Amino acid sequence: MKEIKHYINGEYVGSANGRLFDNVNPANGKVISRVHEAGREEVDAAVKAARAALNGPWGRMTVEQRTAILHKVADGINARFDEFLEAECQDTGKPKSLASHIDIPRGAANFKVFADLIKNVAAEAFEMATPDGTGALNYAVRRPKGVIGVISPWNLPLLLMTWKVGPALACGNTVVVKPSEETPTTTALLGEVMKQAGVPDGVYNVVHGFGGNSAGAFLTEHPDVDAYTFTGETGTGETIMKAAANGVRQVSLELGGKNAGIVFADCDMDKAIEGTLRSAFANCGQVCLGTERVYVQRPIFDEFVARLKAGAEELVIGPPDDERSNFGPLISLKHREKVLSYYQKAVDDGASVITGGGVPDMPAELAHGAWVQPTIWTGLKDDSAVVTEEIFGPCCHIRPFDTEAEAIELANSLPYGLASALWTENVTRAHRVAGQLEAGIVWVNSWFLRDLRTAFGGSKQSGIGREGGVHSLEFYTELKNICVKL
Ligand SMILES: NC(=O)C1=CN([C@@H]2O[C@H](COP(=O)(O)OP(=O)(O)OC[C@H]3O[C@@H](n4cnc5c(N)ncnc54)[C@H](O)[C@@H]3O)[C@@H](O)[C@H]2O)C=CC1
Ligand SMILES: O=C(O)/C=C/C=C(\O)C(=O)O
């Protein structure tokens, strides 16, 4: 059986504690590899290697040298595209048709975009008057923040890990990555690409393991990490923030959501249906930006529900290699238990199940997979847990509304504020409503349309800080002001 080891100081190493855990393909329940679980010893070695590389070859490189290497990393991912695709789809069970268009290309793009950006962002300068009349010049320079702890989730493993590692390295930092225990493979594979691209040893380190009382906690408790970037559940974000408070380390947190879609009667129905189908069901609903609450203006409510139901029932449930499949399993049987508990709760709370609500019949070879049906409900009260809590599954509740003000109030009613999707052909209404939604990202007549230069992150309990474009550079660098008396 294949073993997945830590990548520390440019070498693949096993755990001194001898502990390994299973990596399971959620499409069929088969163990695909055994993964070394890091103890404090490996985490410490990874942080030390990262510190040494920061103070050594990586820290001494010019921006041009560094960014040329990061372009080679992107090229290296593309050169081994099929290997990354296979690994990502085995770990997650997601359709290759999805991962080949989103996960793997974005893995490469995350290095290219930030390598180019760092070369083209100017820092500020201010001339000032002084009492003696000679004046002074203030100018700012950017310096790497240091050793960055990267803790990443399982839903878009390569995409979300490189979304952090790309800009962190472009800015001259070094990293210790703790990928999700569910999806260790592409993060491990990236070590080989880094080595081949000429990234000095110690710049990119990977430790595997779980969260609490394991690699995740050991990393956030390590005193020699300068900042943490995390994507995942809000509760985990709180735990990481508390650990980072020791030593006053900065955090960038992209957390949970319970995103609203608002569909006005003046929308283009075809676009609204297509976009809502993707936002509710893509990646089996395991996208933090996904829509789990859909508010539809009353005159088009029945038609919208009927058409979304028809679309959901046309999804092709199947394993990654099946070219027709556009709907894979959940990440694990454990996660399926959580999702199914909400499916049951919806029924208990009196929902009308428009479609789905259970587990699909699958052929024998997939019977042990974490399959679940795409599900749509109507008729729940606004305070049902199904409508207020992040489920992170392929499901949505649709509720009618009458006025624009009511839709805005409903959308803003929860403590989350990650993303919203708005469907209307009235451009004035689009701007008016978008401006009032309490969310870090608002899509109008689209969903998951990403320009990597834009600010990305959540408001309220959906996160702290923004990444993307110059905002990533803000987080991954320290701005130092130098004041020169002339
Ligand atoms: N992209 C997103 O917004 C994601 C949201 N979730 C949400 O979180 C729920 C639970 O899924 P999990 O995988 O358990 O998410 P999680 O937030 O616990 O895990 C994400 C990452 O954090 C690490 N982690 C967990 N506890 C930690 C700790 N105490 N210290 C340091 N690192 C820690 C995990 O090992 C993993 O690498 C899901 O049902 C979903 O609602 C999960 C994954 C991604
Ligand atoms: O496009 C991105 O950078 C991120 C997309 C999705 C997430 O952040 C998520 O699902 O957590």
Task: Give the topology, please.
Blueprint: E1 3-4, E2 6-8, E3 11-13, E4 20-25, E5 30-36, H1 40-55, H2 57-60, H3 63-79, H4 81-92, H5 96-99, H6 103-119, E6 125-128, E7 136-144, E8 147-151, H7 157-170, E9 174-178, H8 185-197, E10 204-206, H9 215-221, E11 227-231, H10 234-245, E12 250-254, E13 259-263, H11 269-281, E14 291-297, H12 301-314, H13 333-348, E15 352-355, E16 375-378, H14 385-388, E17 395-401, H15 404-411, E18 416-417, E19 419-423, H16 427-436, E20 441-444, E21 459-460, E22 463-464, H17 469-476, E23 477-485
Parallel strand pairs: 1-5, 8-9, 8-11, 9-10, 11-12, 13-14, 13-19, 14-17, 16-17, 19-20
Antiparallel strand pairs: 2-3, 4-5, 6-7, 7-23, 12-22, 15-16, 18-21
The structure holds 1,4-dihydronicotinamide adenine dinucleotide and the ligand O=C(O)/C=C/C=C(\O)C(=O)O.
The ligand O=C(O)/C=C/C=C(\O)C(=O)O is lined by residues 155-156, 160, 163, 231, 254, 287-289, 450, 456.
